[in-house]
């Protein structure tokens, strides 16, 4: 449905007045006005002059200019790149390089100065399914993705050896620390395959301890301490894994079975590629704005090896390109920096190295980091990173609560539901968080199942994943909700334009936190200190422990 120009103008004036009168009033907009605002932001601009100049980056106009049609056109471009490059845009392969070229060319066409930020990483690709079989005492072939799978970043190789269990603690409610200490391998027979149990420490630690003890391969089986820790998971050894041996993950039941089989000899075949490759982050920033007060936006540009990665994360990458296009002439108060990250799917490598390599004085200039990873899931919900910790008990660095509130104001103005999204360190905000940079962002869901309550609120199918094609070949241009892209892209435009004009709400929260820390009785932990007490189970999209 389209609304006429007079109603558009009326909605614009009322919305602008509401923004100027204070953020709290955004949540007091009557439903009738929210409906008009939603229609105004959804409707295509009626005249070229509405979005043709963009000098002011007006928060009430930018969402109208950020059209889903333009974002979807860029998703078609990413799909074409994948189609021309073995069906994917994975970091270290031709499809990723072509994606970098595309983003750079588009930014230069807009008038930006573009920086390629190169880095090395351990690229990991699966050539074929793994093979696992028992040679003795009873020859048995085990089923791929039923009994076992790869740990991402395993070394390739084929080994056959006796299996030796390491410090297991079986049964429901167990507190396994199997393989976490070098002493767990006291008496281990070099040349055997180590059978270790999930629990307590990182998979990387277990595998490297096994290799140091002389194991020629390792199998980590699920912990089995609760019903949700028995099957297969997507796990990683981490991009820094240095054990040098092949490592599989297995179900709890198979692990128990193997631990109780005398004289068990297994054969493992890991048909993978793992080698150092060089790729680029792509960085650009606005011509105008205070360089000492930077609002940074980021999205990862790479896909997984299995597919084109159109929802994950063509959606975030395409929306950032459109945001850059809208901001190219804007006379704004604060510098806006855009980043397209490489090797996120290999463990947040590009964003992590970028943050770690920034001089402290440059990192201090970043007032807030906004992350957009999967904003068009077909069975979506509208998730906002839980900056204040009210939903998941882990608050972000000072300024993150204010950032979350700005996104909440947007959804309220538009009359759309939203909810907190857990800070799980599964995307590129992670290192910013650990370095105490305020952050925020949006997420529409991945492999988690949509509940009945969420289906009643957002529509869609309860009992299905938010993205049934997550990390799969079918994550293509047909795997995207255009409505979710519209609403979330507009949210990016709204919040970015607000912060480009003023970061006062974030400044005030940071100042209050610093003042509180000066009072010994009220001293608050920093976000990184809080994270150190939090059980970080993911780094990127994979389980790390």
TrEMBL record:
Domain Peptidase M28: 281-493
Keywords associated with the record: Aminopeptidase, Hydrolase, Metal-binding, Protease, Signal, Zinc
InterPro entries: M28_fam, M28_SGAP-like, PA_dom_sf, PA_domain, Peptidase_M28
Membrane-crossing segments per the record: none
Pfam family, one: Peptidase_M28
This protein's record includes keyword Magnesium: no
Molecular function terms from GO: aminopeptidase activity; metal ion binding; metalloexopeptidase activity
Residues annotated as domain PA: 176-256
Biological process annotations from GO: proteolysis
Signal sequence, start to end: 1-26
Domain of life (superkingdom): Bacteria
Entry similarity comment: Belongs to the peptidase M28 family. M28A subfamily.
Protein name: Predicted aminopeptidase
């Amino acid at each position: 449905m389209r609304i006429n120009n007079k109603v558009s103008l009326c909605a614009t004036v009322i919305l602008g007045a509401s923004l100027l009168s204070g953020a709290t009033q955004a949540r007091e907009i009557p439903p009738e006005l929210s409906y008009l605002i939603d229609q105004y932001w959804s409707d295509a601009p009626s005249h070229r002059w509405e979005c043709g100049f963009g000098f002011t980056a007006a928060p009430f106009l930018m969402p109208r200019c950020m059209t889903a049609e333009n974002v979807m056109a860029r998703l078609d471009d990413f799909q074409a790149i994948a189609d021309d490059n073995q069906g994917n845009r994975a970091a270290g392969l031709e499809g990723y390089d072509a994606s970098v070229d595309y983003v750079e060319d588009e930014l230069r066409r807009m008038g930006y100065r573009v920086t390629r930020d190169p880095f090395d990483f351990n690229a990991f690709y699966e050539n074929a399914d793994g093979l696992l079989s028992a040679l003795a005492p009873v020859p048995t072939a085990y089923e791929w993705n039923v009994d076992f799978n790869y740990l991402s970043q395993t070394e390739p190789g084929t080994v056959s050896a006796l299996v030796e269990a390491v410090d297991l603690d079986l049964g429901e409610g167990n507190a396994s620390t199997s393989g976490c200490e070098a002493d767990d391998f006291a008496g281990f027979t070099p040349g055997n395959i180590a059978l270790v149990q999930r629990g307590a420490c990182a998979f990387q630690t277990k595998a490297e301890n096994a290799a140091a003890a002389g194991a020629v391969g390792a199998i980590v089986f699920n912990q089995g301490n609760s019903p949700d820790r028995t099957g297969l998971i997507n796990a990683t050894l981490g991009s820094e894994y240095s054990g040098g041996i092949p490592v599989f993950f297995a179900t709890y039941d198979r692990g128990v079975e193997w631990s109780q089989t005398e004289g068990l000899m297994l054969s493992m075949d890991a048909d993978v590629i793992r080698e150092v490759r060089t790729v680029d982050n792509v960085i650009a920033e606005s011509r105008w704005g205070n360089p000492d007060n930077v609002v940074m936006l980021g999205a990862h540009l790479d896909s997984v090896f299995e597919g084109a990665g159109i929802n994950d994360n063509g959606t975030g990458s395409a929306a950032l390109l459109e945001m850059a296009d809208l901001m190219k002439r804007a006379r704004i108060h604060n510098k806006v920096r855009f980043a397209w990250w490489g090797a996120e799917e290999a463990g947040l490598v590009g964003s992590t190295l970028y943050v770690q390599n920034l001089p402290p004085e440059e990192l201090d200039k970043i007032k807030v980091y906004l992350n957009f990873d999967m904003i068009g899931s077909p069975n979506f919900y509208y998730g906002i990173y839980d900056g204040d910790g009210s939903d998941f008990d882990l608050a972000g660095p000072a300024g993150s609560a204010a950032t979350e509130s700005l996104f909440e104001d947007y959804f309220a103005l538009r009359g759309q539901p939203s909810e907190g999204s857990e800070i799980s360190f599964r995307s590129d905000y992670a290192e910013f968080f650990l370095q105490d940079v305020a952050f925020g962002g949006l997420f529409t869901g991945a492999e988690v199942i949509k509940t009945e309550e969420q289906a009643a609120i957002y529509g869609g199918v309860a009992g299905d994943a938010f993205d049934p094609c997550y990390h799969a070949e079918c994550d293509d241009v047909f795997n995207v909700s255009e409505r979710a892209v519209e609403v979330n892209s507009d949210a990016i435009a709204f919040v970015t334009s607000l912060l480009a004009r003023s970061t006062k709400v974030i400044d005030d929260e940071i100042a209050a936190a610093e003042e509180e820390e000066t009072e010994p009785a009220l001293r608050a932990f920093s976000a990184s200190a809080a994270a150190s007490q939090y059980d970080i189970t993911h780094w990127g999209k994979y389980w790390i422990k």
